[in-house]
Amino acid sequence: MRIATRKGRAPRTRVPPHGVRGNLANLGMYAARAARLARTGAEVVIARAPRAARATRTGAGGTTSALQKLPDPVLRWLAAGSVGLGAGLSLAGAPRVVVAAGVAPALIIGAAIASRPVARRAES
Q1: Residue 45 belongs to what domain range?
Q2: Which of 19, 38, 84, 118 is the most exposed place for a label (fewest CB within 10 A)?
Q3: 1: in domain
Q4: Residue 26, Cβ density class (10 Å: 0-12 exposed, 13-18 middle, ≥19 buried)
């Protein structure tokens, strides 16, 4: 008597799926973890925002006052160089963020010129 052997892979035992309840439990766990992370991040941002705003305002004020002390021809050349850099980056196909970073000094210089006291503007 000959015993027939089965060729190929051995039969796999099926693992039952998690089911709807198991998937919902996992979803709830992930949602709770995401909410906890968001709350922690928001608390950090809220705690640090006043100091960051104060430091930004102080730095911008110092930069503006330093730029206002420069003569107009120097400021114009700096602004023109910044605009030229932005135009060159744009023509070269640089990403918009890089182009904006190249043009940003021109905007800051323009704001410093425009915010000069009236007496200072008359001198130049």
Answers
A1: 18-57
A2: 118
A3: no
A4: exposed
